[in-house]
TrEMBL record, chain A:
Gene Ontology molecular function, alphabetical: 5'-3' exonuclease activity; 5'-flap endonuclease activity; DNA binding; magnesium ion binding
CDD domains (UniProt xref): H3TH_FEN1-Euk, PIN_FEN1
Name of the gene this protein is made from: FEN1
Protein name (database record): Flap endonuclease 1
Domain XPG N-terminal: 1-108
The UniProt record lists the keyword Magnesium: yes
Cofactor note: Binds 2 magnesium ions per subunit. They probably participate in the reaction catalyzed by the enzyme. May bind an additional third magnesium ion after substrate binding.
Keyword field: DNA damage, DNA repair, DNA replication, Endonuclease, Exonuclease, Hydrolase, Magnesium, Metal-binding, Mitochondrion, Nuclease, Nucleus, Phosphoprotein
Functional summary from the UniProt entry: Structure-specific nuclease with 5'-flap endonuclease and 5'-3' exonuclease activities involved in DNA replication and repair. During DNA replication, cleaves the 5'-overhanging flap structure that is generated by displacement synthesis when DNA polymerase encounters the 5'-end of a downstream Okazaki fragment. It enters the flap from the 5'-end and then tracks to cleave the flap base, leaving a nick for ligation. Also involved in the long patch base excision repair (LP-BER) pathway, by cleaving within the apurinic/apyrimidinic (AP) site-terminated flap.
UniProtKB/TrEMBL annotation, chain B:
Domain of life: Eukaryota
The keyword Nucleus belongs to this UniProt entry's keyword annotation: yes
One Gene Ontology term, aspect cellular component: PCNA complex
Organism classification: Eukaryota, Fungi, Fungi incertae sedis, Zoopagomycota, Kickxellomycotina
GO BP annotation list: leading strand elongation; mismatch repair; regulation of DNA replication; translesion synthesis
One GO MF term: DNA polymerase processivity factor activity
Keyword presence, Nucleus: yes
InterPro entries: DNA_clamp_sf (IPR046938), Pr_cel_nuc_antig (IPR000730), Pr_cel_nuc_antig_C (IPR022649), Pr_cel_nuc_antig_N (IPR022648)
Designated name of the protein: DNA sliding clamp PCNA
UniProt similarity note: Belongs to the PCNA family.
Length: 382, 260
């Protein structure tokens, strides 16, 4: 999934790029969410006490719908405007990774059978989680649910995170939300992680700023992509004997993979048929819909439709759904709350994250006069 | 170092009480012309700024710029140890990690000394663009607090409509709807300082969150009058003066009707 140990590389080199925030900080923000990733999470995480997926009376899985319904409500309640982006066809380059995942799933299924025979409940639980896959039906049901909830969806032609990044880059949304770090390679200015996690986990939302990542690493976007390929992505192999640290310093020194290859030690071997150039192209020119043609519209929920779908068809508790709808309607109102950020710009020339003591702030004397409102108060040094 | 003496602890108490609901912790920037503070709430919907000019203290001394990271709840606790009429002296060394507060009773028979630990706070200062407002309303701060409280029973947000005749506050919700109109007082001569006055270029209507307004009105004890500066679709400025020595300003982003 994503880029191997990129989070650590960012933490080591560009700590200021990562901020952890409470969900409340995102009032009024439009966010593009990688839907397939979320559904997958829900299928894994939303489970009953026996460790099995939640099902209705007819035995159909409902974990994904419950997850989608409640986690989306949580966002809307907090004034966030979500857009869900669904995967299209996987890129050809990913077939290797996908085959590996399938193998793992088959393996897990085998283990599951064995575990069931042996009666090892812990192993059964572990293995059932590994056999999870998002089916077409899951996707379709979630799309239907979201439409009824009045939440816009986008069908990406290819990878959802690439589309999320494109939407964020164009300013259609403020940030892309995915657990997949390669969203940064696709060029999203801001990446949010853990946005769709359950409230009970008390997990703060991690906010990555691409510009600060690049700043901290001292790389351009293209060099950053090369670094990510070297760290290990979903699409191709990596150089043997080059871990995160070496990869970072190699790219910082040599700038491109081509140059890095020329300067490798003997012990470090490049994989056979290493198609990094194609992967690079996939990151720089992903197959996405033109953001300007994507129309995002948030509408009030279709109460009757939701009731029919969730209560009549899926056998959900009517009261709970009614409560959820109430929250959805209420949340839609607070989403119109404006933010000061759009009016007041952060002071320029002041780096964030510096320790207060080390940093004698200039110009404070100015700030006490009426002129402080002119906005130039921190540029004067004394 | 900083040394500032304030004749009445009550004033400092009121300031801290006014701000502590909105801000947990913030940096107080002390310079030769006074003390200032700026803080945004975590959701970035509202901001407050505090200014205390050096002239308001007797005496005031600060030869180098210092920034004091303070927790408002701790500060409030320490100030509870001061009597309203006590004289407060604030002291901090240039590289100090504590703020010294000394309270002297009016007859000088009791002197208490507290040192409050400072915090390292990352501050994101923002610049506020110079703004000409379309409409400025002066009204009684007690009246304003009451209106916000009363309308909270009706809804989560309030609509402010300012015209030449007066300013109208209205809210609606499940209970029904409510509206309060304050009329502009006629002649200038006979009006008291707290009577409603409106200066305007054009009528303005804005929708604001009552939750925040009810936090702002905690500053009402500081000043009899609150000044509301507003234009359509930009943050509304609420100003409470602190005597002649400074002010507290609150900015609140309006709620926007989106068409997309």
């Amino acid at each position: 999934m994503g880029i191997h140990s990129l989070t650590k590389v960012i933490g080591d080199n560009a700590a200021s790029a990562l901020k952890s925030n409470d969900i409340k900080t995102y009032v009024g923000r439009k966010v593009a969410i990688d839907a397939s990733m979320s559904i997958y999470q829900f299928l894994i995480a939303v489970r009953g006490q026996d460790g099995q997926n939640l099902t209705n009376e007819a035995g159909e899985t409902t974990s994904h719908l419950i997850g989608m319904f409640y986690r989306t409500i949580r966002m809307v309640e907090n004034g966030i405007k979500p857009v869900y982006v669904f995967d299209g066809k996987p890129p050809l380059l990913k077939s290797g990774e996908l085959a590996k995942r399938l193998d793992r799933r088959v393996e897990a299924e085998k283990n599951l059978e064995a575990a069931k025979e042996a009666g090892d409940t812990e192993l059964i639980d572990k293995m059932t989680r590994r056999t999870v896959r998002v089916s077409k039906e899951h996707n379709e049901e979630c799309k239907r649910l979201l439409e009824l909830m009045g939440i816009p969806i986008v069908n990406a032609p290819c990878e959802a995170e690439a589309q999320c990044a494109a939407l964020a880059k164009s300013g259609k949304v403020w940030a892309a939300a995915s657990e997949d770090m390669d969203t940064l390679c696709f060029g999203t200015p801001i990446l949010l992680r853990h946005l769709t996690f359950s409230e009970a986990r008390k997990m703060p939302i991690d906010e990555f700023h691409l510009d600060k990542v690049l700043d901290g690493l001292g790389l351009s976007q293209d060099e950053f992509i090369d670094l990510c390929i070297m760290l290990g992505c979903d699409y191709t192999g990596t150089i043997k004997g080059v871990g995160p640290k070496t990869a970072t310093s190699l790219i910082q020194k040599h700038k491109t993979i081509e140059q890095v290859i020329k300067n490798l030690k003997e012990s470090q071997t490049v994989p056979e048929e290493w198609n990094y150039a194609e992967v690079r192209k996939l990151f720089t020119h992903p197959e996405v819909l033109d953001p300007s043609e994507v129309d995002l519209k948030w509408s009030p929920p279709n109460e009757e439709g939701l009731r029919q779908f969730l209560v009549d068809e899926k056998g959900f508790n009517e009261d709970r759904i009614a409560k959820g709808i109430e929250k959805l309607k209420k949340g839609a109102k607070t989403a119109t709350q404006g933010r000061l950020d759009s009016f007041f710009k952060p002071m320029s020339g002041k780096s964030n994250g510096t320790k207060r003591k080390a940093d004698k702030k200039p110009g404070t004397s100015d700030s006490t006069s009426k002129k402080a409102k002119s906005g130039s108060k921190r540029t004067k040094t004394k | 170092m900083l040394e500032a003496r304030l004749p009445q602890a009550a004033l400092l108490k009121k300031i801290v009480e006014a701000l502590k609901e909105m801000v947990n912790e913030s940096n107080f920037d002390c310079g030769d012309s006074g003390i200032s503070m700026q803080a945004m709430d975590s959701a970035h919907i509202a901001m407050c700024s505090l200014l205390l000019r050096s002239e308001g203290f007797e005496p005031y001394r600060c030869d180098r710029v210092i920034s004091l990271g303070l927790s408002f709840s701790s500060l409030s606790k320490v100030l509870k140890c001061a009597g309203n009429d006590d004289v407060v002296t604030l002291k901090a060394e240039d590289d100090a990690d504590t703020l010294g507060l000394m309270f002297e009773s009016p007859k000088e028979e009791r002197v208490s000394q507290f040192d409050l630990k400072l915090m390292d706070i990352d501050s994101d200062h923002v610049s506020i663009p110079d703004q000409e407002y379309d409409c400025t309303v002066h009204l009684s701060s007690a009246e304003f607090a009451r209106i916000c409280r009363d309308l909270s029973t009706f809804g989560a947000s309030v609509v402010l409509d300012a015209t030449k005749e007066g300013i109208k506050f209205s809210a609606s919700g499940e209970l029904g709807r409510g509206g309060i109109l304050l009329k502009q007082q006629g002649s200038v001569d006979d009006s008291s300082p707290t009577s409603t006055r409106i200066e305007m270029r054009e009528p303005v209507s804005v929708t604001l969150s009552l939750k925040y307004l009810n936090i702002f009105t905690k500053a009402a004890p500081l000043s009899e009058v609150v000044t509301i500066n507003m234009s359509s679709e930009i943050p509304v400025l609420f100003q409470f003066s602190i005597g002649d020595i400074g002010h507290i300003r609150f900015y609140l982003a309006p709620q926007i009707q989106e068409d997309d």
